[in-house]
Amino acid sequence: MISEDTRELVDRGIMLPLMEEFYTIQGEGFHKGTAAYFIRIGGCDVGCHWCDVKESWDAEVHPPTHVGQIVENAVKFSKTIVITGGEPLTWDMTALTSNLKKQACDIHIETSGAYDLTGIWDWICLSPKKIKLPKPEIYPLANELKVIVFNKHDLKFAEEQAAKVSENCILYLQPEWSKREEIIPLIVDYVMANPRWKVSLQTHKYLNIP
Ligand code: SF4
Hints:
β7 (144-149), α4 (153-162) and β8 form a beta-alpha-beta unit. The protein is globular, with a radius of gyration of 17 Å. Helices cover 26% and strands 24% of the residues. It has helices at residues 4-11, 67-75, 94-102, 153-162, 180-193, 203-207; strands at residues 15-25, 35-41, 64-66, 80-84, 106-111, 123-126, 144-149, 170-175, 197-199. By secondary structure, the protein is an alpha/beta fold. Residues 44, 46-48, 51, 53, 56, 85-87, 112, 129 line the site of iron/sulfur cluster.
């Protein structure tokens, strides 16, 4: 059980439930291949059945950590920071991102967009989920749209989502990992027929890195 004082700091985004942090190579989307420091924040109630980080869902099991500490750890490794989860926008990202900006970091977020957008971002990767759609305000701000494809219907969903983002937003289709053998041929055919889309693969899983 965390104290009321700590809970209040978490509610204000001064402390955040930190699940893990690690320096690695971004495996997905536009920045794939780029070294980056990942900060994985606990807490998500979107509930994707194929989620590969279900252990992130319960924020209570991840220790509330002061954002100053998180930033201090991060900048020892990299100025390119990826904030992920869980769903990081469960929390107020203002304090964390302001502190990272003071250290001249380039800050990326991976989000479903299901909650209010807080924080200062250099790159927004929006990965919408059917069961809890993004807030309308985030669509025009997305730099990349990454739709996870689990079945054929997800391609229709992808087009519906692409209609809401800006024309500069880069569009990616990414196979859900457990279905990749079945889905990759579908995506390959779709991207060749609809070349405004690109393929994104979870290359970190092929590289066997986190
Ligand atoms: S939004 Fe992300 S973290 Fe949350 S359930 Fe879906 S895949 Fe998992």
